[in-house]
Amino acid sequence: MNCPCRSGEIFDLCCGRFISHRLPAENAQQLMRSRYSAYVLNDVEYLNETWHPDYRPAALQPERGIRWLRLDVIAFCEQGYEATVEFEALFLVDGRVDTLHESSRFVFEQGRWLYTSGEMMEPTRKPFQPARNTSCPCASGLKFKRCCGG
C-alpha cells in the first residue's frame, strides 16, 4: 500500500514504521506526515501519543464523514528543539472537496518530536471544482466522479 502522506513510498517504509512500530520520527516533517496518515487511518491512539501533553485536548474525536485525500508539504523549518511545518491537506466532506492550510509547531523533548499546536491559514489553492473529466485529487488515477466524488 502506498503511504497516505504521498511520499511515494510504501506505507511500511514511510509512516507505517512510526504508526505501527511506534518508532520516533527523525524530524518534525516526518512526524507531521505520520500524523496526517494517522488521521487518514483514524488512529486516535497514535495522534494522542504524538501530541505534546500540555497542548493535547482532553478527548480527541476526529470528525466523522471526513475523507482525507491529499497532503502537500509547503515548508519545513527546524531550529534546535523547535520546528514548524506548513502544509495543505485536501479533504472530502458532504461531497465537497475542501482545503486545510496550517502552520504546525513541534518541539523535541525526551528524544522525540511532539506536535504542540497549529495556526490555520488561508488556503493558497483555488477551491476544487471538478469539471466533467477531472482527475481525483487523491491521486488514484481515476476520474473524481468515479472515485471520491462517487
Description:
The protein has 150 residues and is α+β, with helices and mostly antiparallel strands. It has a single domain, classed as Roll (Nuclear Transport Factor 2, Chain: A), CATH 3.10.450.50. 16% of the residues lie in helices and 33% in strands. The protein contains three helices and four strands; from the N terminus they run H-H-H-E-E-E-E. The chain has a four-stranded antiparallel sheet, covered by helices on one side. The longest helix has 14 residues. The chain is globular, with a radius of gyration of 16 Å. It starts with 15 loop residues before the first helix and ends in a 29-residue tail after the last strand. The mean pLDDT is 90.
Low-confidence stretches: none
Number of strands: 4
The first-level CATH class name:
Alpha Beta
User: What is the strand arrangement across the widest sheet?
Assistant: 1-2-3-4
Largest sheet: 4 strands, antiparallel
Proper CATH architecture: Roll
Contiguous helical run count: 3
| Helix-strand pattern | HHHEEEE
- Proportion in helices: 10-25%
Oligomer: single chain
Number of domains: 1
The overall average pLDDT, rounded, is 90
Shape: globular
Residue fraction in strands: 25-35%
CATH topology: Nuclear Transport Factor 2, Chain: A
Distance N terminus to C terminus?
Answer: 22 Å
Explain briefly what this protein structure is.
It is built from three helices and four strands; from the N terminus they run H-H-H-E-E-E-E. The chain has helices at residues 16-19, 28-41, 44-49, and strands spanning 67-79, 82-93, 96-109, 112-121.
